[in-house]
Design goal:
Layout (H helix, E strand, L loop, with lengths): L2 E6 L2 H14 L1 H28 L4 H39 L8 E6 L3 E5 L4 E5 L5 E5 L3 E5 L5 E5 L6 H14 L3 E3 L1
Parallel strand pairs: 5-8
Antiparallel strand pairs: 1-2, 2-3, 3-4, 5-6, 6-7
Length: about 180
């Protein structure tokens, strides 16, 4: 065994992972782009519908378009903050319902040919070949993606020292093709 980590995730770790995934991965960026386009289309259709169904003076039409444009721009500017707030509300809602969207405690061991995650409910053994990407996010966390939206989160807190962090980052680079350092 090369490395063994006792991972204790917090809500903040999970929310940081979601933010990073949505705003930095190709799939997340595409989702945000599609959401922006849908919002633009909805505002455009509302504007056309209101102008077609009502008989407004030119001054009212201009005022309407200025207002709808201002709302559209404001929504586009605040979209990332709104998404983050939405994830937080969803997490709180799930916790109140007694459901967990992430496993707070686990043990992850890294061997020569596999890594093993052990949680109170299950044990997963995966070959390094299933890793799609590894993102090293400063000195905050390492995300080991096994699919577009699923990753093993290793927050900095599970490392004993900066040296162990560096050693693990070097080790994981030898086990997968794509490592992104941010």
């Amino acid at each position: 065994m090369h490395f063994k980590f006792n991972v204790n995730l917090t809500d903040e770790d999970y929310l940081n992972f979601n933010s990073f995934t949505m705003l930095n991965t190709p799939q997340g960026k595409l989702s945000v782009k599609n959401l922006r386009v849908m919002i633009a289309l909805i505002f455009f259709l509302i504007g056309v519908f209101v102008l077609i169904t009502r008989d407004y003076s030119p001054n009212v039409q201009v005022l309407f378009f200025v207002l709808i444009s201002a709302w559209f721009i404001l929504l586009q500017l605040l979209l990332k903050k709104m998404l983050k707030r939405s994830w937080k509300r969803q997490l709180i809602k799930m916790k109140k319902a007694g459901k967990s969207v992430y496993t707070p405690e686990s043990e992850i061991c890294f061997y020569d040919d596999v890594f093993v995650e052990t949680t109170p409910c299950e044990k997963n053994e995966l070959k390094y070949s299933v890793i799609e990407d590894v993102s090293v996010v400063g000195e905050n966390a390492i995300y080991i993606y096994v699919s577009a939206l699923k990753a093993y989160i290793l927050p900095f807190s599970c490392f004993e020292s900066k040296e162990q962090w560096d050693d693990f980052a070097t080790f994981i680079k030898t086990k997968c093709d794509k490592v992104t350092i941010i």
